[in-house]
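<tokenise_the_fold>
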Amino acid sequence: MNKLEHLKGKKVLFFSVQTFNLEKDIVKQLEKHGALVTYFDERPANNNFTKGLIRLRKNLLEKKINKYYKKILKEIKNERFDFLLVNRGEVVTKFFLEEFIKLQPNCKRIFYTWDSFGNHSNGLEIINYFDTKFTFDLQDAEKYGIGFRPLYFTDKYREIYENGCKKEIDLLFLGTAHSDRYIISSNIKDWCKNHNLIAYNYYFMQGKLVYFFKKFFDPTFKSFAFKKLSFKSLTSAEIVQFYDKSDVVLDISHPGQSGLTMRTFETLGAGKKLITTNSNIVKYPFYNPNNIYLIDRNNLELDINFFSKKYEPIDLECYERCSIDGWIEDLFLGSEHNFWKV
């Protein structure tokens, strides 16, 4: 991506919630291309209590949030930025953006969200403060008239693709425990066992208090077995190791979400086959039924022949578009009407 050379020496102010170190990957990649990045967590704190309160009753934290963003304004008042990137916009306030624009009217402001507005609507309240706006969700892009830009894979998954497969696991599922994931993945694991295939499931839970809260209030959580949950998230290196030794990855998207998950693109980057519940994947240029098997979450049917098929490499240009560099190029140097929005 030669265009990314234009980021050399550019100053980027970046806001994002902390999400499995994905924000660190973005900072690292921008800095790889010579950008000077100043990062702030969107949230004033990253503990489970604060995260839960932001989601359920954000107004109770209004004073703390305002104090946090006033502090940031004070810290950056003598800086001059070329780009402002806000990822998701769960907490960033209108007053911060208004003050920032007054101080730095020439800074290009970029909004991106890797969540649907149905799950986090705050982004809609601040979106008009930005020059360019993107979402990973095609339905939201069409509904709100903004740019469509799917997620990406990082260079760690490219290395798996280039080094070849060390197959030990036939089917891999890694994911946060929610909705019907446990039921679907458990049934598929049983199917694999009956067909002499090795399946591995890893369920992450944010904390024991969160587990008991969901167990009590969330009807979809009744079937989750406590002993099968992990309260420690996998590191990026551990996730890569699992991909490296797996042949097929299982993706179970949230029932209310139409955008493709990060797992989808990590699988693509690593050159692995995918089984997914997200029917929207057929609309994407990399869709190939030899590599991607679509399942109905309400009527599970699998084909043993899919596991014996060899992965078919996708078009090189499309592969690069799916990378983190392709993502950065679209956001920082492209327009809302990009490769993905036809």
Notes: The chain has 14 helices and twelve strands.
